[in-house]
Design goal:
The longest helix is centred in the N-terminal third of the chain and has 18 residues. Helix content is about 35%, strand content about 25%. The protein is α+β, with helices and mostly antiparallel strands.
Length: about 400
């Protein structure tokens, strides 16, 4: 019996065979598309010439590496024998491949953390390749670059860069990348390029840009009379700093609030962080912590207890007493902590001058906090008490 499309034309034998073989079985390879069986040729014509997905099988990875060898070893002569390196052996490396309508790998790109140490949010892309027959009108290379950028941002990456051949610099610029500097790879001129990830800048703008107008009430003659002098908002040289010197004393005061949604869904961690951020603020001012005051809002006693338990664990770990505070139940989740410290030589955040040496100290231990990947790096909860106290 002859099979035909709904438009009256005969269906090819391959369609009939594919449909028959698919009955009663879960066919994913070679199954005839239902659109073809219905004769919806206009929809079929609009289907993209390729799709991009993560390479998950050994066959897909092998196909991608063959394309690299063809392009970078045989065609361009950048490498001898092969172009494999330690990034290929790193389990954290992500490979995205482009497949044509037949499922054949026609391009790919890789991305992953820089270096062998902990993933600190700095990723690099590379080994972008497109099969010779698929180059040109389809725009596969540009699509792979865009997909890599999207994947990097989805992973919470803070910096994403790539070293590209000079001839490809214009393409990357059209896609929004910025040139950093020229360099050389395998004796060939390259350009280090940076994908602008503005998540932190956008967050800072959204949360801090309004502070100027909001704090205007604490500036000017009226505020000076109210505060008996020019020490409002920390005084000259300390406006907007991590902490504020208390006039006439060697005491530094710092205050931070935790995002309410975090207090609501992760109260123990919120309590820990409320101590962590305040102790760090005092340390940035060159002050040693002497006490904490907390203000807690919670829907019930159980929720408040979880907040205070986390706060108490951190206070004990850092060796800082909780001097007092205020707790209110039957209200939306809220948490703010004030920390007091002492120093006779506070360090201003804006004290740097041209020619000064700059030293960056960072704790690379730990890992992304569960539930906060790409946003919160936990380098404190696994530390011993003596290690934490040495940082204050």
């Amino acid at each position: 019996m002859m099979s035909m499309y709904l438009d009256g034309s005969a269906a090819p034998a391959s369609a009939v065979a594919g449909r028959s073989a698919g009955r009663g079985a879960d066919r994913t390879d070679g199954a005839f598309d239902i659109l073809a069986l219905l004769g919806d040729r206009s929809t079929l014509a609009r289907q993209p010439a390729f799709r991009i997905e993560e390479a998950c099988s050994a066959a897909e990875l092998s196909a991608y590496r063959r394309l690299r060898r063809d392009a970078f070893v045989h065609e361009q002569g950048l490498f001898s024998g092969h172009d494999l390196d330690d990034r290929d052996a790193d389990a954290r490396t992500v490979v995205l491949v482009a497949k044509d309508r037949d499922g054949t790998v026609v391009g790919g790109v890789r991305l992953g953390p820089v270096g062998d140490g902990p993933d600190i949010g700095w990723w690099q892309g590379g080994r972008l390749v497109v099969a010779r027959r698929a180059r040109g009108a389809y725009g596969i290379g540009a699509a792979l670059v865009r997909a890599a950028c999207a994947r990097a941002e989805a992973e919470g990456v803070l910096r994403f860069d790539a070293t590209v051949q000079v001839r490809n610099e214009a393409l990357f610029k059209r896609l929004g990348w910025r040139s950093v500097r020229t360099t050389t790879v395998a004796g060939v001129p390259h350009v280090l390029m940076l994908w602008p990830i503005g998540r932190i800048a956008a967050q800072a703008a959204a949360t801090k840009s309004a502070l100027g107008p909001l704090l205007a009430a604490f500036q000017g003659p009226a505020s000076q009379k109210l505060t008996h002098g020019p020490a409002a908002l920390g005084g000259a040289g300390f406006v907007g700093d991590d902490g504020a010197p208390v006039p006439g004393t060697d005491v530094i005061a710092a205050c931070d609030a935790i995002v309410p949604s975090m207090v609501e869904r992760d109260p123990g961690w919120a309590g820990w962080c409320s101590v962590l951020v305040n102790v760090n603020d005092l340390a940035a001012m060159g002050a040693s912590p002497i006490g904490l005051l907390d203000a807690v809002g919670a829907k019930d006693a159980a929720h408040a207890g979880r907040i205070l338990a986390g706060l108490g664990r951190a206070a004990e770990a850092y060796g800082v007493p909780v001097l007092g505070g205020h707790t209110q139940l039957g209200v939306p989740a809220a948490l703010s902590v004030t920390a007091l410290g002492r120093t006779d030589r506070p360090v201003p955040g804006g004290g740097g001058r041209t020619g000064h040496a700059v030293r960056l100290t960072a704790d690379l231990g730990g890992g992304w906090r569960t539930g906060y990947r790409g946003r919160q790096w936990d380098s404190s909860t696994h530390r011993r008490t003596d290690e934490l106290r040495a940082m204050t």
